UniProtKB/TrEMBL annotation:
Annotated ranges, domain ATP-grasp: 115-298
Lineage: Bacteria, Bacillati, Actinomycetota, Actinomycetes, Kitasatosporales
Recorded superkingdom: Bacteria
Transmembrane stretches, start-end: none
Any one GO MF annotation of this record: ATP binding
Name assigned to this protein: Acetyl-CoA carboxylase biotin carboxylase subunit family protein
Keyword annotations from UniProtKB, A to Z: ATP-binding, Ligase, Nucleotide-binding
InterPro entries (UniProt xref): ATP-dep_AA_Ligase (IPR052032), ATP-grasp (IPR011761), ATP_grasp_subdomain_1 (IPR013815)
Organism of provenance: Streptomyces sp. R21
Length: 395
């Protein structure tokens, strides 16, 4: 069976998750990408057999359809990229294959359209506006300004006045010529995620995370702590909003805040959670997560019970650069077992690399995954590991 996987740059989710899962399922894989050299360099190991890499303008669904129709017959078209969900959905639908509703992928990717649709559906209304050029707005400050189709908290910032809004919009549009920005009211509350997996009929709740952020005005995710089960009323509110968006096929990573018992969606990423949280989740729940996701795109129904382990505790920490410069010292990759806690550290930057300060997850220096069965033990082990490490950045 032939799986077409659409991708931009290589990611841990694909390299360590979906491609090994495809190999275990016995699938022949064709990667369609606009960065073929980067993918060839990423898949040199023996754990990536039977992977074909073809260059394609994957942002254009017509180019994707043409590339597939002039190559091997597809059995599934899949992507885990935020940017390519609509293209993959349209291509899969063209070939009569299982797919997400392209309207749902579009309205979740387009943050302004998501707000309009949720309001029109009567499930939640958030004040928002769109700007294609800097302008003062009579808005309910503080507000959040962000790219309409952005990802990873890039160029997401809190503003307290119309003057600051104009200044921030000028800065963002200078970096993103032609972009459209969304300005929306700030939603107070604790930030969480809900991770779901569905086949269009059955939907499983995999749990979620409590997210700790950097101080305002930026929104960098510093730490995520696993939440095995959110309160039922909270889950019901989030699922009602996902139903209104027609989200229910494959994996979905939803970010939401809870304030005084009310759950309100911040954004919907219609894919598996990233930044190695998906790798942790499969390991923690002891389920073949990536295989389940791929099987839904092959048209296979999900089991009524995934058999997920429910006694796990976990957290992820992201050591983050606080200034621009060259990374001159950093810990190497490691695997440790401490007091029943499994620690996995992976560097995300090479020593000797120079970077600017982005105020996004591109500032991450590494990621620590800690898993066990007791949250206090997990927290102690993670805290001690991080305290013993050293990252040095020279101007």
């Amino acid at each position: 069976m032939r799986l077409y996987l659409l991708a931009l740059n290589p990611t841990d989710s694909v390299t360590e998750g979906f491609l090994p899962a495809a190999a275990r399922l016995g699938l022949d894989v064709t990667v369609l990408t606009d960065q073929p050299d980067a993918h060839r360099a990423a898949y040199l190991g023996p754990e990536h057999p039977r992977i074909e890499i073809l260059e394609c303008d994957v942002r254009d669904f017509r180019a994707v359809i043409t590339r597939i129709s002039t190559h091997h017959t597809p059995d599934a078209v899949f992507t885990n990229s935020d940017h390519l969900q609509t293209q993959a959905a349209l291509a899969a639908a063209y070939f009569g294959l299982p797919a997400k509703n392209w309207r749902a992928t579009l309205r979740t990717k387009d943050k302004a359209e998501m707000r309009r649709h949720l309001a029109a559906s009567g499930v939640d209304t958030v004040w928002s506006a769109e700007l294609s050029e800097p302008a003062a707005l009579d808005a309910p400050y503080p507000c959040v300004v962000k790219p309409r189709e952005g990802v990873a908290s890039e160029d997401v910032v809190l503003v307290d006045s119309s003057e600051e809004l104009v200044t921030r919009c000028k800065e963002i549009l200078a970096r993103r010529p032609g972009a459209v920005l969304v300005v929306e009211e700030y939603l107070p509350g604790e930030l969480y995620t809900l991770e779901t997996l569905g086949d269009g009929r059955t939907r499983h709740i995999l749990g979620g995370f409590h997210t700790e952020l950097s101080p305002p005005p930026y929104f960098i995710e510093d730490r995520l702590t696993f939440v095995p089960a959110h309160p039922e009323p909270v889950v019901a509110q989030v699922l009602a909003q996902l139903d209104a968006l027609d989200v229910g096929f494959g994996a979905c990573h939803t970010e939401f805040v809870v304030h005084e018992g009310r759950a309100r969606i911040i954004e919907v990423n219609y894919r598996a959670i990233g930044d190695q949280c998906d790798l942790l989740l499969g390991r923690l729940l002891e389920i073949p997560l990536f295989e389940h996701i791929l099987r839904t795109h092959l048209g296979e129904p999900l089991p009524a019970d995934l058999g997920a382990r429910r006694d796990g505790a976990a957290r992820l920490d992201y050591p983050c650069a606080e200034r621009a410069g060259t990374l001159t010292a950093a810990p190497e990759a490691s695997e440790l077992a401490v007091d029943g806690v499994q620690l996995t550290y992976r560097p995300l930057r090479e020593t000797g690399e120079r970077h600017e300060l982005y105020r996004t997850n591109r500032d991450y220096l590494g990621v620590l995954r800690a898993t066990g069965t007791d949250q206090r033990a997990v927290d102690r082990a993670a805290t001690a590991f991080l305290a013993a490490q050293r990252w040095e950045i020279q101007p």
